Amino acid sequence: MAKALIIGAGGVASVAVHKCVQNSEVFEEICIASRTKSKCDDLKAKLDGQGTKITTAQVDADNVEELIALINEVKPDIVMNLALPYQDLTIMDACLATKTHYMDTANYEPEDTAKFEYKWQWEYHERFKEAGITALLGSGFDPGVTGVFTAHALKHHFDEIEYIDILDCNGGDHGYPFATNFNPEINIREVSANGRYWKEGEWIETKPMEIKRVYNFEEVGEKDMYLLYHEELESLAKNVPGLKQIRFFMTFGQSYLTHLQCLENVGMTSIEPIIFEGKEIIPLQFLKAVLPDPASLGPRTKGKTNIGCIFRGKKDGQDKTYYVYNICDHEACYAEVGSQAVSYTTGVPAMIGAMLVVNGEWNKPGVYNVEEFNPDPYMDALNKWGLPWKESFNPELVD
Ligand code: NDP
Description:
- The chain is built from 14 helices and 18 strands.
- It is α/β, with parallel strands linked by helices.
- The chain folds into two domains: 2-137, Rossmann fold; 145-331 and 386-392, Dihydrodipicolinate Reductase, domain 2 (2-Layer Sandwich).
- The chain binds NADPH dihydro-nicotinamide-adenine-dinucleotide phosphate.
């Protein structure tokens, strides 16, 4: 029996809250706290009386003192950070001050530069270790399940993994010419940055969307996918011994790319502040304000996501290939929790990661990425809580 403080009340948090309530045997009590308290109250109104006691609070998660006061009042076993990457360090500071376990789904990002680096959070390792508390980093789908898939492949299928390709396919259609499936600001920062992949101990940089492949995804069909940098490449390159190459590909439709290019060309995706009518604004934040709220895509999105990892390496001296993936249906997710599959595939692993920390299976003082824990209970929980995985030993490879 545990109590969780969930920070954020957006697309991902909403799914995680639904899943904690479904799992009321573990999550006896949750407090949902966010900048806009009415969103927390709406979730409480929807889910109250289903086994988990729910309270709500207003918090500015950029403010460490406010966070410490809230944690001292709620006294949670774990803080689930489902706000934005900008808040990771303030929430980690508050967890340290109150000796409370921490988890998140995205690495810390300074507001003024898109970095996608773990270094700031990894620097907390000794302090978390000394405090006897666990920080579980990146327990969404990617990062998150992709790291667990890697630990599972290493434990059960390979002596050595040499090549990893992470393939993230969203075959969903929301009917808008342009919208993002999760926080637009973070999404656009990610896809408008240079691509990067890791090969033979070095990072190789590409222009944004420079490397394109076509892949035939089960239950989705053929899709164009593009090489991107994604934060789990950094931790997996460090945590998988003997790895020769790791790449990440994400699918994008032509309409999305054409709109994005136009927005970039006119300067709307910039994170450099500009002065507009005497006030400093960040163009990308303004763009976010005019785009559809990702949470509003739920009822409109049809189709499936298919996300997984293709591993190549050695087992008993022989070459081996292994593909493990999950297929998730947007409409089924909406019917279950009122959100589309991109939020669902992140919110379910967030609940699972928090559950494993609080039930002791993944309680290891220090700061760790998901692939540094035993993957078995997580893999079982994915099957149980709505993200069943499939595997193939003879998949189509990416050249
Ligand atoms: P949303 O924008 O839908 O929700 C973010 C929530 O955080 C909102 O409720 C927002 O409040 C709240 N928030 C923002 N700033 C603060 C603050 N200073 N204090 C308190 N609350 C704050 O984002 P998503 O739910 O789509 O994404 C949540 C996280 O999940 C992000 O970090 C994202 O990068 C990550 N993610 C990870 C994925 C993975 O697979 N690992 C995939 C998708 C997302 P308000 O309502 O007031 O704006």
